[in-house]
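User: Hi! I have a protein structure encoded as tokens and I'd like to know what sequence might fold into it. I'm fairly new to this, so please keep things simple.
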């Protein structure tokens, strides 16, 4: 398949690890969209990772929303390169 994504994933340097591991940055050499996206999420963001990686040119997985949502505006202001948009994935369940 010629449009299969070509992905390179790297850890974001100087980032504190969250409950879901290190903050990572994924670059896709054959994206469907040339957009740069930040993803803040919970466990469900992991199930969407394949979609995000295949769709967008660059994806930065910032971390778990519980640890990163309050500092997100500050991180955005300090970022040399601003994302085209930010996706916040939060799935709530009550049993």
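Assistant: Happy to help. Inverse folding works backwards from shape to sequence: for each of the 95 positions I chose a residue that suits the local structure. Here it is:
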């Amino acid at each position: 398949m010629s449009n299969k994504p070509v992905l390179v994933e790297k850890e974001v340097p100087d980032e504190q690890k969250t409950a879901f591991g290190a903050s990572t940055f994924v670059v896709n050499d054959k994206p469907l969209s040339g957009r740069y996206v930040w993803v803040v999420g919970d466990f469900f963001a992991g199930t969407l990772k394949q979609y995000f990686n295949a769709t967008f040119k660059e994806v930065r997985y910032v971390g778990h929303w519980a640890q990163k949502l309050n500092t997100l505006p500050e991180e955005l202001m300090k970022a040399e390169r601003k994302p085209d948009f930010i996706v916040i994935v939060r799935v709530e369940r009550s049993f």
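A useful reference point when you look it over: The mean pLDDT is 83. Feel free to ask if any position seems puzzling.
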